[in-house]
Automatic annotation (TrEMBL):
This is Dihydroorotase. Keywords: Hydrolase, Metal-binding, Pyrimidine biosynthesis, Zinc. It comes from Helicobacter anseris. Binds 2 Zn(2+) ions per subunit. Zn(2+) 2 binds at K95, H134, H168.
Length: 339
């Protein structure tokens, strides 16, 4: 095949940050995606409608044709009126970070199963929210997602009408939960379906492959890849592209996050072609998300990829520092047709 046409690509899990970093990285997503679910874990987390509106406007000012799907950072302080206000503005995704689980999660939820949280989730269910979860316990790194699965089982049964998304699924043991509970859905990143622990530490520690949840085993990678290339109907693409400045990536307390935004569609085209699955790419990159999140937008976007090599840059300059993209320096077989 010499060209691929994709309609309305959506990135259902994206970190856009703020200030200079936002300005630097946003074009990498807006060039190829119609919209994205924008994560709320800024330095000052997006914990209410007012903050979400301001963040939305900031993004729209830079990229008017892009559709930011805003998320509200779930805290114990959310009241019924706050949730009603969010829904009235069209902000229908709540993001749950267990306290301390990842970047800027110190305001996260301490006990997901406590009485206050249950009341909030009951209201969220009634109002038609979607609950997106960073699904990690504070246990042993490789078992954090697995240990969290019991929370999904409980929430799914207690709130059967609440759509619950297991973000960046990284463990093959989660697939059973996805398939057993009607209201559980998932997003998959490029890195968790193509890389494993050996990429992170097999040839020396590579901080650019350090993310949360951590890359896992070969079996996890292969089984998750299978969900993607078969376009499992409950799974959407969500890059979890999460830029950090090189200086913080290399510090002793290295930040978790992989900046994959610059070449996502090109990389996915190469991956799906390798597995004879190009026919499923449209569903994985867009159609499943439209259905599962009930989305509609005023505008459309068509992307054409052509069979022509492109090279991922070594780095992207930002704030007297730089950001290193995933697979910096690598040549890909597909490139964006800008004609
Ligand atoms: O690797 C990650 N980076 N995982 C997350 O959950 C957060 C993200 C970030 O914000 O840097
Ligand atoms: Zn994330």
């Amino acid at each position: 095949m010499e060209s691929i046409t994709l309609h309305n690509p959506l990135d259902m899990h994206l970190h856009l940050r703020e200030g200079e970093i936002l300005k630097t990285i946003l074009p990498y997503s807006t060039d190829t995606f119609l919209g994205a679910v924008v994560m709320p874990n800024l330095k000052q987390p997006i914990t209410d409608t007012r903050l979400a509106e301001a963040y939305y406007e900031t993004i729209k000012k830079i990229a008017n044709d892009f559709n930011p799907i805003m998320t509200i950072y779930l805290t114990n302080d959310l009241k019924k009126q706050d949730l009603q206000q969010a829904i009235s503005k069209g902000f229908k995704i709540l993001k749950l970070y267990p306290k301390g689980s990842t970047t800027n999660s110190s305001n996260g939820v301490e006990n997901i199963l406590d009485h206050k949280m249950q009341q909030i989730l009951e209201i969220a269910q009634d109002l038609g929210f979607i609950l997106s979860i960073h699904a990690e316990s504070s246990g042993f790194s490789l078992d954090r997602e697995y240990e969290f699965l019991k929370v999904f089982e409980y929430l799914s049964q207690t709130f059967p009408k609440l759509k619950i998304i297991l973000e960046h699924m990284s463990d093959h043991r989660s697939i059973k939960v996805l398939d057993s509970f009607e209201n559980i859905f998932a997003t998959l990143t490029l890195h968790h379906i193509t890389m494993d622990l050996d990429d992170l530490l097999g040839k020396g520690l590579n901080p650019h492959y350090f993310c949360k949840p951590i890359l896992k085993t070969k079996k996890d990678k292969e089984m998750l890849l299978n969900l993607a290339i078969t376009a499992h109907p409950k799974v959407s693409f969500g890059s979890d592209s999460a830029p950090h400045l090189l200086s913080t990536k290399l510090s002793s307390n290295a930040s978790a996050g992989i900046f994959s935004a610059p070449f996502l569609l090109e990389s996915l085209a190469e991956l799906f072609e390798k597995h004879n699955a190009l026919a499923n790419l449209q569903k994985f990159i867009s159609d499943n998300a439209f259905k599962n999140y009930n989305l509609s937008f005023k505008n459309q976007k068509t992307i054409v990829l052509k069979k022509q090599p492109c090279i991922i840059p070594e780095s992207i300059a930002c704030m007297d520092d730089k950001i290193i993209p995933l697979h910096a320096g690598k040549t890909l077989q597909w490139s964006l047709d800008k004609s």
